[in-house]
Structure prediction request, 447 residues.
Amino acid sequence: MKKNVRLEKIVSLAKRRGFIFQSSEIYGGFGAVYDYGPLGVSLKNAISQRWWRAMTQLHENIVGLDSGILMHPKIWEASGHVSNFHDPLVDCKQCKARYRADEFAEDYESIDWSTTKCPTCGTTGKMTEPRQFNLMFKTIVGPVEESGSEAYLRPETAQGIYVNYLLTQGAMRLKVPFGIAQIGKAFRNEIVARNFIFRTREFEQMEMQYFVKPGTDDDEMLRWKEERIKFYTEALGIDHDKVRYHQHGENELAHYAKEAWDIEFEFPFGWAEIEGIHNRTDFDLRRHQEYSGKSMQMFDDEAKERYFPYIIETSAGLNRMLLAVLSDAYWEDEENNRVVMRFHPAVAPVKAVVCPLVKKDGLPDIAHKIVNELKNHWKVIYDQQGSIGKRYYRQDEAGTPFGITVDHQTLEDDTVTIRDRDSQNQERIPLTGIVSTIQDRIDNYSK
Ligand code: ATP
Prediction:
């Protein structure tokens, strides 16, 4: 049966098989940034497409947006990020290790740091008092560094949605409740970046902001909470017992939130947040009205009055979601001495490998023809290197769900074998039925 996997195994497979590389490796690496190789970028795209479909295609009242990473700096004053978006930092003066104070205790202000032991070097009495450290990256816009030319790399995609919400609503003639979804990069100068791609300084968010009538917000919150956890188990095929909710207590709540829930996943290093679902009330819209001087209210046709909608936010990290998918998929099949990435076929980077059993007798030509047909539908690859068993095992590690093999019987009766990655079962199917069989198995997959 499946056991909990160690993170190092995932890191090593991710590098070996071209999922994820450390950034700038030939220069010794660049802290907390990662690059995605061929299989990684395919997997990442497939996961984000699942999310985009779940939001903008399966909901008629949710539309997409793609706003800039750089925005007017006042946006971050209005949102509270300039004054509130910081982490408490403590240093060990002995070994220079650096920590977030809240990793020692949530109530870190009551800690006596002069008696605290450094977890790295073990020295007591060398920890600094916590200092607040703003997580936003600053940059300079224009050729001259002068005051007024500073801007921030966005630390969340949400604000791009708020400042565009009336334009979007008007253009699409939306009525509350409606949602705006966005996928894009966000940047945070994290003090402690660790656990591979779990916490990085550059990452992608998938956020959906749902605009509702005040008073309906509690019900909508409940609905989104339920809908979002299903996404993990149904759309991504993650085990039910690996995801759970965590409700934010009073002292965990962000300054803008009335109620907040995390969806947590059981990573190799323990349970941790992958997505936050927040009732942000009308905090952001009121603040943008105050700071921009422009009305951020909607007009209620029935009551004939202007009001601020409330916002329920679902905010997920694409990279964390990908790490969850990798961790959930990793399976050491000890019985058969192989490593299998049991991705849901809908997100598997390569859908099928097509193999001629031998490199002669016309079998490669037929296999190429099959590749030419299948590639109109999915990413598939051709492989004729090595024994058929080795070829399958290579693809098991890449998570390719189907193996199509052309053999001598194909010449006689126009059938091929289709091998299932997880069970290793093989069946003969007609050449003309390959596309429909694969599609059917993708649509009806269960572990
Ligand atoms: P954490 O407590 O882990 O720092 P957060 O509560 O600050 O996260 P949010 O601001 O709610 O996170 O961001 C929403 C989502 O964005 C998170 O659930 C996570 O998936 C993702 N995310 C946030 N920070 C990072 C990061 N540094 N690296 C990767 N993903 C991140």
Observations:
- The chain has a mean pLDDT of 95.
- DSSP finds twelve helices and 23 strands in the chain.
